[in-house]
Amino acid sequence: MYSLPDNSKALRLWAVLIFVAVSLVSIFPLRADDTQQAPPPQFERKDALAISQGAIGGQLGDYAFYNSLGEPRALQQYAGKPLVVSMIYTSCYHICPTTTQHLADVVRKARDVLGDDSFRVITVGFDSANDTADAMRNFARQQDVAITGWEFLSGDADAVNSLAKDLGFQFFPSPSGFDHLIQSSVIDKDGIVFRQVYGIRFDTPHLIEPLKSLVFEEDLNQSFFDQLSSRVKLFCTVYDPASDSYMFDYSIFVGLTIGLLLGAIFVYLIAREWRHSRTHALKISSGKG
Description:
Layout: H1 6-27, H2 32-35, H3 45-54, E1 64-66, E2 72-74, E3 83-88, H4 95-114, E4 120-125, H5 133-142, E5 150-153, H6 157-167, E6 171-174, E7 177-180, E8 183-187, E9 193-198, H7 204-215, H8 224-236, E10 237-240, E11 245-248, H9 250-285
Parallel strand pairs: 3-4, 4-5
Antiparallel strand pairs: 1-2, 3-8, 6-7, 8-9, 10-11
Helix pairs in contact: 4-7
C-alpha cells in the first residue's frame, strides 16, 4: 500500500490542529479585554456640555500652580474678586490662540466699564507635560496679552485635572492635539462657579453681564450710599450693540428719577383730593356744609 511521506503526515496533523483551534475560538470567543485594552474615552460635545453646566454652583478647590515667571500661585490668592478662568494648551495652533485673543478683547471692554481692578483673569495650560511656565509666557506674548490682573498659569497633572473637574472642563487627546469644549468660566469672589461662556467668538454681553452682576452685587459691609451707588451703576451700565461696547448711561437713572417724582406728585394730588372730598362730605353730613 502506498503511504504518505513523513512531511505530508506532519502537514495533515497541523491542518487538523488549526481546524480544531479555529472551531474552539468560534465556540468560545475571547473577551475583548483578553486581547486588547479598552478604547480611550472619546469627546462627546453633548456630554461635555452637560458636565460643564453641572459644575455651576460648585466650589473650586485650592490648587497650586506657577505663573509665567515660575512664581507659585494658589487659587485661593484670587478669592475676594470675580475671576475668569480659561483653559488652553500652548501647542494649539488655531483655536486656543483665537479664543484667547477674543477673550482679551472682551476683557478690555469689561475693564473699561467695570474698572481695571474689578476682576481677575487666569489662563491655565491643561497639557501639563508641555505647558510649562516658559511655554505659557511665550503663548501670552504671541497672543499679545499684557493685561494687568491676567496671569498665565502652569501646573502638574494633579492640579490641572482637579481644576478641570471643578470647572466641568473635559479634554481628551486626539490626532490633532486635544478635543475639548471651548469654555471660559466666571467664578464669584467666594470661588463658586457662577457662569459658563462658550465659543471661540462669543457675544460680548455673555461675559460682561455676569461680571457686571458680580462686580456690582450688594455687599453687606458697604454703607447704604455705597450700596445705592452700586445699584445705580448696575442699572445704568448698558450694552450698545452698535459699538459692541458698554457705557454708563445715567440718562436712564435721571429718567427713572423724574418718573418716580412725577408719580409721587400724582399720588400726593390724588390723596389730597380724596382727603378734601372726604372732609367736605363729613361737613355736609354733620350739617356744617
